[in-house]
Amino acid sequence: MAVNNSSTPRCDNGECQMNDLIEYSMIERTAIVASHMLIFLLAIPANGVVITVISRVQNVQTPTSTFLMNLCIADILIASLYIPFVTVDLYVAGSWIFGDFMCKLVSFLYYFATNFSILILTVISVERYVSVCRPRQMRLTAKKAFVTTVILWFVAGFTALPLFIVRKSIFNPIVNVHFCVETWSFKYSKAYKTITLAMFYIMPLVFMAVVYYKIGKKVWASADKTKSMKLSTRHASNSKLRLTKIALGIILSFAVSWTPFNTMTLLFFFDRKNYPYSQEAMRVANPIIFFVAFSNCSLNPLLYCYMSQNFRKAFHIFWKRKSRRDL
Known about the structure:
By secondary structure, the chain is mostly helical. Helices cover 78% and strands 4% of the residues. The longest helix is centred in the middle third of the chain and has 42 residues, at 186-227.
């Protein structure tokens, strides 16, 4: 792995910064690349299946399903246009070999997709709250859900735009390789990362924790009433509860997956003198942190398929239709 001796940080997260200092053997790099390929090979077809089923089977085209479909699109962006390029950069070539434009685009898409993911998860929590706690006062239609997702894509793109501007592929004559780096000062980079982490990670997670606490209170309070309901009403109530569990599971997986990664980013910017703390520890921890974070791309569709009875039925309908066409 080539070492970056330039004054500009090579990358914008703990994974890249640590890899500027750590040398990996061929066996270690092969294992890391294989783990990244596993994410790639799982995430794209799994998310593709969810998108196909939601878009083609009418009975799962609900606001929640619309939001989840767009979440799958964001996961595909990360799996297909970030993970492969960064893997080659860090563990195969040891330098940025894809040119200046791809340096800008890959960095932009990473922030674009991750910012959108947390925004859509926040909206899903609001939709679940309205559905469970305020079903008679408010109603989110499919059209409103579509407009909401368009707005969220725009907000995510706008906030990620600085990375497209400041990222450049720069040649380092000391080590004779190119690095994809940010060209603004460390102070501005620190300010940007702090603001975006607050806006697109910490604050949304706190907000969602409060929302799901309220949902939990409502569900707990209505648990006894459900037993005495009519069968049709009880079925609707149970359906809402299942959707809420799916949404909560997806949000919890996002939080668990990305917390170590974002913690390392904060440590890099706010404890610069002591970072890294133990090079040998980070040799082991860094690839694991990266794998845990980006494996979230493939977890969402698996959670959705496993927890959603309606989705499994819709997938069965889709498969039967496809089998008939193929005959």
